[in-house]
Protein backbone atom coordinates (compact mmCIF):
# COMPACT_ATOMS: atom_id res chain seq x y z
CA UNK A 1 0.00 0.00 0.00
CA UNK A 2 1.23 3.50 -0.84
CA UNK A 3 1.20 5.63 2.35
CA UNK A 4 0.08 9.31 2.29
CA UNK A 5 3.66 10.35 3.29
CA UNK A 6 5.18 8.41 0.39
CA UNK A 7 2.67 9.90 -2.04
CA UNK A 8 3.34 13.40 -0.77
CA UNK A 9 7.12 13.04 -1.05
CA UNK A 10 6.73 11.59 -4.53
CA UNK A 11 4.53 14.51 -5.61
CA UNK A 12 7.10 16.90 -4.18
CA UNK A 13 9.80 15.36 -6.37
CA UNK A 14 7.58 15.70 -9.44
CA UNK A 15 6.71 19.31 -8.60
CA UNK A 16 10.43 20.07 -8.19
CA UNK A 17 10.99 18.82 -11.74
CA UNK A 18 13.11 15.81 -10.65
CA UNK A 19 13.26 12.75 -12.89
CA UNK A 20 12.03 9.47 -11.44
CA UNK A 21 14.44 6.60 -12.12
CA UNK A 22 13.68 2.84 -12.21
CA UNK A 23 14.97 2.05 -8.70
CA UNK A 24 13.20 5.02 -7.06
CA UNK A 25 10.03 4.54 -5.07
CA UNK A 26 6.92 5.25 -7.15
CA UNK A 27 3.17 4.79 -6.61
CA UNK A 28 1.86 1.54 -8.04
CA UNK A 29 -0.61 3.49 -10.17
CA UNK A 30 2.21 5.65 -11.66
CA UNK A 31 4.05 2.44 -12.61
CA UNK A 32 0.88 0.99 -14.19
CA UNK A 33 0.13 4.15 -16.15
CA UNK A 34 3.69 4.24 -17.48
CA UNK A 35 3.57 0.60 -18.52
CA UNK A 36 0.30 1.33 -20.36
CA UNK A 37 1.47 4.43 -22.21
CA UNK A 38 5.04 3.26 -22.95
CA UNK A 39 4.00 -0.16 -24.20
CA UNK A 40 1.23 1.33 -26.33
CA UNK A 41 3.84 3.64 -27.80
CA UNK A 42 6.24 0.71 -28.44
CA UNK A 43 3.54 -1.40 -30.14
CA UNK A 44 2.62 1.61 -32.32
CA UNK A 45 6.19 2.04 -33.54
CA UNK A 46 6.37 -1.63 -34.51
CA UNK A 47 2.96 -1.91 -36.19
CA UNK A 48 3.69 1.47 -37.79
CA UNK A 49 6.32 -0.23 -39.96
CA UNK A 50 3.60 -2.11 -41.88
CA UNK A 51 1.84 0.67 -43.84
CA UNK A 52 5.17 2.07 -45.06
CA UNK A 53 6.90 -1.29 -45.44
CA UNK A 54 4.17 -2.05 -47.98
CA UNK A 55 5.83 0.40 -50.41
CA UNK A 56 9.56 -0.42 -50.02
CA UNK A 57 9.58 -2.70 -53.08
CA UNK A 58 7.65 -0.12 -55.12
CA UNK A 59 9.53 3.06 -54.21
CA UNK A 60 9.83 5.31 -57.29
CA UNK A 61 13.66 5.48 -57.27
CA UNK A 62 16.70 3.94 -55.58
CA UNK A 63 17.11 7.10 -53.49
CA UNK A 64 13.50 6.94 -52.27
CA UNK A 65 13.89 3.23 -51.51
CA UNK A 66 17.01 3.86 -49.40
CA UNK A 67 15.32 6.67 -47.47
CA UNK A 68 12.18 4.61 -46.84
CA UNK A 69 14.21 1.56 -45.75
CA UNK A 70 16.15 3.73 -43.29
CA UNK A 71 12.95 5.27 -41.94
CA UNK A 72 11.18 1.95 -41.41
CA UNK A 73 14.30 0.60 -39.72
CA UNK A 74 14.34 3.65 -37.41
CA UNK A 75 10.74 2.86 -36.34
CA UNK A 76 11.88 -0.65 -35.34
CA UNK A 77 14.65 0.95 -33.28
CA UNK A 78 12.12 3.22 -31.52
CA UNK A 79 10.03 0.20 -30.64
CA UNK A 80 13.11 -1.48 -29.16
CA UNK A 81 14.16 1.51 -26.99
CA UNK A 82 10.59 1.78 -25.75
CA UNK A 83 10.26 -1.92 -24.91
CA UNK A 84 13.60 -1.72 -23.08
CA UNK A 85 12.40 1.39 -21.24
CA UNK A 86 9.16 -0.34 -20.25
CA UNK A 87 11.08 -3.37 -18.93
CA UNK A 88 12.71 -1.07 -16.33
CA UNK A 89 9.26 -1.02 -14.68
CA UNK A 90 9.44 -4.74 -13.87
CA UNK A 91 7.55 -6.29 -16.81
CA UNK A 92 8.86 -8.53 -19.55
CA UNK A 93 8.85 -7.66 -23.21
CA UNK A 94 7.27 -11.02 -23.99
CA UNK A 95 4.29 -10.33 -21.70
CA UNK A 96 3.81 -6.88 -23.20
CA UNK A 97 3.90 -8.18 -26.76
CA UNK A 98 1.57 -11.06 -25.99
CA UNK A 99 -0.88 -8.70 -24.31
CA UNK A 100 -0.95 -6.70 -27.52
CA UNK A 101 -1.12 -9.63 -29.95
CA UNK A 102 -3.56 -11.83 -28.03
CA UNK A 103 -4.99 -9.52 -25.32
CA UNK A 104 -6.29 -5.98 -24.99
CA UNK A 105 -3.26 -3.69 -25.22
CA UNK A 106 -3.79 -0.81 -27.63
CA UNK A 107 -1.66 0.78 -30.35
CA UNK A 108 -2.16 4.02 -32.26
CA UNK A 109 -5.35 4.24 -34.30
CA UNK A 110 -3.46 5.82 -37.22
CA UNK A 111 -1.83 2.57 -38.33
CA UNK A 112 -5.19 0.98 -39.14
CA UNK A 113 -5.54 2.90 -42.41
CA UNK A 114 -4.30 1.62 -45.80
CA UNK A 115 -1.50 3.16 -47.89
CA UNK A 116 -3.07 3.25 -51.35
CA UNK A 117 -0.47 5.22 -53.34
CA UNK A 118 3.11 6.44 -52.91
CA UNK A 119 1.70 9.85 -51.95
CA UNK A 120 0.49 8.18 -48.74
CA UNK A 121 4.15 7.57 -47.84
CA UNK A 122 4.86 11.31 -48.29
CA UNK A 123 1.84 12.17 -46.14
CA UNK A 124 2.74 9.69 -43.38
CA UNK A 125 6.15 11.39 -43.13
CA UNK A 126 4.68 14.89 -43.11
CA UNK A 127 1.49 14.46 -41.08
CA UNK A 128 1.91 11.29 -39.00
CA UNK A 129 5.56 11.87 -38.08
CA UNK A 130 4.70 15.57 -37.69
CA UNK A 131 2.00 14.70 -35.14
CA UNK A 132 4.30 12.17 -33.45
CA UNK A 133 6.97 14.88 -33.01
CA UNK A 134 4.51 17.31 -31.40
CA UNK A 135 3.35 14.59 -28.98
CA UNK A 136 6.79 13.16 -28.27
CA UNK A 137 8.60 16.48 -27.81
CA UNK A 138 6.21 16.90 -24.90
CA UNK A 139 6.90 13.31 -23.72
CA UNK A 140 10.66 14.00 -23.88
CA UNK A 141 10.02 16.18 -20.80
CA UNK A 142 8.20 13.33 -19.04
CA UNK A 143 8.93 12.77 -15.34
CA UNK A 144 10.07 9.16 -15.90
CA UNK A 145 13.79 9.23 -16.84
CA UNK A 146 13.95 6.26 -19.23
CA UNK A 147 10.83 7.38 -21.14
CA UNK A 148 12.00 10.96 -21.32
CA UNK A 149 15.44 9.97 -22.67
CA UNK A 150 13.97 7.51 -25.20
CA UNK A 151 11.77 10.29 -26.56
CA UNK A 152 14.69 12.71 -26.91
CA UNK A 153 16.38 10.27 -29.26
CA UNK A 154 13.16 9.30 -31.04
CA UNK A 155 12.33 12.95 -31.78
CA UNK A 156 15.71 13.52 -33.44
CA UNK A 157 14.97 10.68 -35.85
CA UNK A 158 11.29 11.61 -36.33
CA UNK A 159 12.42 15.06 -37.31
CA UNK A 160 14.34 13.60 -40.27
CA UNK A 161 11.28 11.49 -41.11
CA UNK A 162 9.04 14.50 -41.21
CA UNK A 163 11.43 16.49 -43.41
CA UNK A 164 11.74 13.70 -45.98
CA UNK A 165 7.94 13.37 -46.14
CA UNK A 166 7.41 17.10 -46.54
CA UNK A 167 10.11 17.35 -49.21
CA UNK A 168 8.53 14.51 -51.22
CA UNK A 169 5.04 15.96 -50.87
CA UNK A 170 6.26 19.42 -51.95
CA UNK A 171 7.78 17.82 -55.08
CA UNK A 172 4.53 16.01 -55.84
CA UNK A 173 2.42 19.08 -55.23
CA UNK A 174 4.64 20.89 -57.73
CA UNK A 175 4.58 18.01 -60.23
CA UNK A 176 2.27 16.88 -63.05
CA UNK A 177 -1.51 17.34 -62.65
CA UNK A 178 -1.72 13.61 -61.86
CA UNK A 179 0.92 13.87 -59.11
CA UNK A 180 -0.81 16.93 -57.67
CA UNK A 181 -4.08 15.02 -57.57
CA UNK A 182 -2.42 12.06 -55.82
CA UNK A 183 -0.84 14.34 -53.22
CA UNK A 184 -4.11 16.13 -52.46
CA UNK A 185 -6.07 12.86 -52.34
CA UNK A 186 -3.61 11.41 -49.79
CA UNK A 187 -3.86 14.52 -47.59
CA UNK A 188 -7.67 14.35 -47.79
CA UNK A 189 -7.63 10.74 -46.58
CA UNK A 190 -5.06 11.17 -43.75
CA UNK A 191 -5.89 14.58 -42.28
CA UNK A 192 -8.72 13.67 -39.88
CA UNK A 193 -7.14 10.38 -38.86
CA UNK A 194 -3.98 12.30 -37.93
CA UNK A 195 -5.93 14.70 -35.71
CA UNK A 196 -7.34 11.64 -33.93
CA UNK A 197 -3.81 10.45 -33.03
CA UNK A 198 -3.75 13.00 -30.18
CA UNK A 199 -6.56 11.12 -28.43
CA UNK A 200 -10.06 12.22 -27.37
CA UNK A 201 -10.93 15.77 -26.35
CA UNK A 202 -9.69 16.66 -22.84
CA UNK A 203 -13.24 16.42 -21.48
CA UNK A 204 -13.39 12.76 -22.64
CA UNK A 205 -9.82 11.78 -21.69
CA UNK A 206 -9.93 9.75 -18.46
CA UNK A 207 -6.12 9.50 -18.12
CA UNK A 208 -4.96 13.06 -18.81
CA UNK A 209 -5.50 14.65 -15.37
CA UNK A 210 -3.56 11.94 -13.53
CA UNK A 211 -0.76 11.84 -16.13
CA UNK A 212 -0.39 15.62 -15.95
CA UNK A 213 -0.39 15.63 -12.14
CA UNK A 214 2.50 13.17 -12.25
CA UNK A 215 4.33 14.97 -15.06
CA UNK A 216 4.13 12.02 -17.45
CA UNK A 217 2.31 14.27 -19.89
CA UNK A 218 3.00 17.99 -19.66
CA UNK A 219 0.31 19.11 -22.13
CA UNK A 220 -3.22 17.91 -22.81
CA UNK A 221 -4.48 16.15 -25.96
CA UNK A 222 -6.32 19.29 -27.14
CA UNK A 223 -3.38 21.61 -26.51
CA UNK A 224 -1.11 19.41 -28.61
CA UNK A 225 -3.70 18.98 -31.38
CA UNK A 226 -4.13 22.76 -31.59
CA UNK A 227 -0.36 23.29 -31.77
CA UNK A 228 -0.21 20.74 -34.59
CA UNK A 229 -3.06 22.33 -36.60
CA UNK A 230 -1.50 25.80 -36.28
CA UNK A 231 1.77 24.52 -37.76
CA UNK A 232 0.24 22.37 -40.48
CA UNK A 233 -1.95 25.16 -41.88
CA UNK A 234 1.18 27.19 -42.63
CA UNK A 235 3.11 24.22 -44.01
CA UNK A 236 0.22 23.13 -46.27
CA UNK A 237 -0.17 26.64 -47.64
CA UNK A 238 3.55 26.88 -48.40
CA UNK A 239 3.40 23.91 -50.81
CA UNK A 240 -0.04 24.56 -52.30
CA UNK A 241 -1.88 21.75 -50.49
CA UNK A 242 -5.40 22.29 -49.18
CA UNK A 243 -6.46 20.89 -45.83
CA UNK A 244 -9.85 19.16 -46.20
CA UNK A 245 -11.73 21.20 -43.62
CA UNK A 246 -14.15 23.93 -44.75
CA UNK A 247 -14.39 25.17 -41.15
CA UNK A 248 -10.70 26.06 -40.78
CA UNK A 249 -10.73 29.71 -39.67
CA UNK A 250 -8.07 31.89 -38.11
CA UNK A 251 -9.17 33.44 -34.83
CA UNK A 252 -7.45 36.82 -34.49
CA UNK A 253 -8.17 36.99 -30.76
CA UNK A 254 -6.69 33.63 -29.75
CA UNK A 255 -4.07 33.53 -32.52
CA UNK A 256 -5.10 29.95 -33.33
CA UNK A 257 -6.74 28.14 -36.24
CA UNK A 258 -10.19 26.82 -35.39
CA UNK A 259 -11.12 23.55 -37.06
CA UNK A 260 -14.23 21.44 -37.75
CA UNK A 261 -15.64 18.47 -35.82
CA UNK A 262 -13.46 15.39 -35.63
CA UNK A 263 -15.33 12.18 -36.59
CA UNK A 264 -15.12 10.57 -33.14
CA UNK A 265 -17.39 7.64 -34.04
CA UNK A 266 -14.79 6.59 -36.58
CA UNK A 267 -12.01 7.01 -33.99
CA UNK A 268 -13.70 4.77 -31.39
CA UNK A 269 -14.58 2.18 -34.01
CA UNK A 270 -10.89 2.00 -35.04
CA UNK A 271 -9.75 1.87 -31.38
CA UNK A 272 -12.18 -1.00 -30.75
CA UNK A 273 -10.73 -3.02 -33.65
CA UNK A 274 -13.10 -2.20 -36.52
CA UNK A 275 -10.93 0.13 -38.59
CA UNK A 276 -10.15 -0.54 -42.28
CA UNK A 277 -6.90 -2.42 -41.54
CA UNK A 278 -7.12 -3.57 -37.87
CA UNK A 279 -7.56 -7.25 -38.66
CA UNK A 280 -4.89 -7.31 -41.32
CA UNK A 281 -2.37 -5.52 -39.07
CA UNK A 282 -2.84 -7.86 -36.12
CA UNK A 283 -2.71 -10.89 -38.42
CA UNK A 284 0.62 -9.71 -39.91
CA UNK A 285 2.10 -9.03 -36.46
CA UNK A 286 0.99 -12.42 -35.08
CA UNK A 287 2.47 -14.20 -38.10
CA UNK A 288 5.81 -12.40 -37.63
CA UNK A 289 5.81 -13.19 -33.89
CA UNK A 290 4.94 -16.86 -34.32
CA UNK A 291 7.37 -17.43 -37.20
CA UNK A 292 10.11 -15.67 -35.21
CA UNK A 293 9.83 -18.09 -32.27
CA UNK A 294 12.90 -20.07 -33.37
CA UNK A 295 14.99 -16.87 -33.57
CA UNK A 296 14.08 -15.94 -29.98
CA UNK A 297 14.87 -19.49 -28.84
CA UNK A 298 18.24 -19.46 -30.65
CA UNK A 299 19.10 -16.04 -29.16
CA UNK A 300 18.23 -17.26 -25.65
CA UNK A 301 20.35 -20.38 -26.09
CA UNK A 302 23.25 -18.31 -27.42
CA UNK A 303 23.03 -15.98 -24.41
CA UNK A 304 22.90 -18.97 -22.03
CA UNK A 305 26.01 -20.60 -23.59
CA UNK A 306 27.87 -17.30 -23.62
CA UNK A 307 27.09 -16.77 -19.92
CA UNK A 308 28.39 -20.28 -19.09
CA UNK A 309 31.57 -19.65 -21.10
CA UNK A 310 32.13 -16.28 -19.37
CA UNK A 311 31.58 -17.88 -15.94
CA UNK A 312 34.12 -20.62 -16.75
CA UNK A 313 36.66 -18.07 -17.97
CA UNK A 314 36.42 -15.86 -14.87
N1 LIG B 1 -5.11 5.34 -30.73
O1 LIG B 1 -7.35 9.12 -21.61
P1 LIG B 1 -6.77 9.18 -22.98
C1 LIG B 1 4.29 7.18 -34.17
C2 LIG B 1 -7.01 5.47 -25.99
S1 LIG B 1 4.02 6.62 -32.63
C3 LIG B 1 -5.50 4.31 -29.95
O2 LIG B 1 -6.64 10.52 -23.61
P2 LIG B 1 -3.90 9.02 -22.74
C4 LIG B 1 5.64 6.94 -34.78
C5 LIG B 1 -6.13 5.53 -24.75
O3 LIG B 1 -5.11 4.56 -24.81
C6 LIG B 1 2.31 7.00 -32.32
N2 LIG B 1 -5.98 4.48 -28.69
O4 LIG B 1 -5.36 8.42 -22.99
C7 LIG B 1 5.53 6.53 -36.18
C8 LIG B 1 -7.14 5.31 -23.65
O5 LIG B 1 -7.45 3.93 -23.55
P3 LIG B 1 -6.90 3.00 -22.29
C9 LIG B 1 1.92 6.53 -31.01
C10 LIG B 1 -6.01 5.76 -28.23
O6 LIG B 1 -2.98 7.89 -22.55
C11 LIG B 1 5.27 7.44 -37.17
C12 LIG B 1 -8.40 5.95 -24.19
O7 LIG B 1 -8.23 6.06 -25.60
N3 LIG B 1 2.34 7.44 -30.00
O8 LIG B 1 3.41 7.73 -34.73
C13 LIG B 1 -5.58 6.86 -28.99
O9 LIG B 1 -3.95 10.08 -21.69
C14 LIG B 1 5.18 7.03 -38.50
C15 LIG B 1 -8.64 7.32 -23.58
O10 LIG B 1 -7.61 8.26 -23.97
C16 LIG B 1 2.16 7.14 -28.69
O11 LIG B 1 1.68 6.09 -28.34
C17 LIG B 1 -5.12 6.62 -30.29
N4 LIG B 1 -4.72 7.60 -31.10
O12 LIG B 1 -3.55 9.77 -24.13
C18 LIG B 1 5.72 5.19 -36.51
C19 LIG B 1 2.68 8.19 -27.73
N5 LIG B 1 -5.76 7.97 -28.24
O13 LIG B 1 -5.43 2.82 -22.54
C20 LIG B 1 5.64 4.78 -37.85
C21 LIG B 1 2.41 7.83 -26.31
C22 LIG B 1 -6.29 7.59 -27.06
O14 LIG B 1 -7.17 3.79 -21.03
C23 LIG B 1 5.37 5.72 -38.83
N6 LIG B 1 1.01 7.91 -25.96
N7 LIG B 1 -6.43 6.26 -27.07
O15 LIG B 1 -7.68 1.74 -22.42
C24 LIG B 1 0.35 9.05 -25.67
O16 LIG B 1 0.88 10.16 -25.78
C25 LIG B 1 -1.03 8.93 -25.11
O17 LIG B 1 -1.23 7.62 -24.69
C26 LIG B 1 -2.19 9.32 -26.09
C27 LIG B 1 -3.51 9.07 -25.36
C28 LIG B 1 -2.07 10.79 -26.46
C29 LIG B 1 -2.13 8.48 -27.36
Describe the structure.
By secondary structure, this protein is mainly α. Helices cover 68% and strands 2% of the residues. It has 13 helices and 2 strands, in the order H-H-H-H-H-H-H-H-H-H-E-E-H-H-H. It has helices at residues 4-15, 28-47, 49-53, 62-87, 93-102, 118-139, 145-173, 177-196, 208-213, 221-238, 264-274, 278-291, 293-313, and strands at 249-251, 256-258. The chain has a two-stranded antiparallel sheet with strand order 1-2. Strand 1 (249-251) and strand 2 (256-258) form a beta hairpin. It is globular, with a radius of gyration of 21 Å. The chain starts with a helix and ends with a helix. The model has no long low-confidence stretch (mean pLDDT 97). The structure holds Phenylacetyl coenzyme A. Phenylacetyl coenzyme A (FAQ) is lined by residues 36-37, 40-41, 44-45, 48, 75, 106, 108-109, 124, 128-129, 132, 135, 196-200, 205-208, 211, 221, 271.
Task: Set down the secondary structure blueprint.
Blueprint: H1 4-15, H2 28-47, H3 49-53, H4 62-87, H5 93-102, H6 118-139, H7 145-173, H8 177-196, H9 208-213, H10 221-238, E1 249-251, E2 256-258, H11 264-274, H12 278-291, H13 293-313
Antiparallel strand pairs: 1-2
Bound molecules: Phenylacetyl coenzyme A.
Amino acid sequence: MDTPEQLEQFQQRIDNGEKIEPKDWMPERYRKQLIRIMSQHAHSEIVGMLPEGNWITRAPSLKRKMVLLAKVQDEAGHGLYLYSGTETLGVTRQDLIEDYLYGNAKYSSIFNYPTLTYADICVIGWLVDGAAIVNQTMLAKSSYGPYSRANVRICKEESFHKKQGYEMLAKMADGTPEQQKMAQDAVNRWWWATLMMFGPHDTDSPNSAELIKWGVKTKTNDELRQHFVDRMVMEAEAIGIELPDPDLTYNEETGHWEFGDIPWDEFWSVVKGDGPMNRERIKARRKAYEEGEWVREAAKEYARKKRLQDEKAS
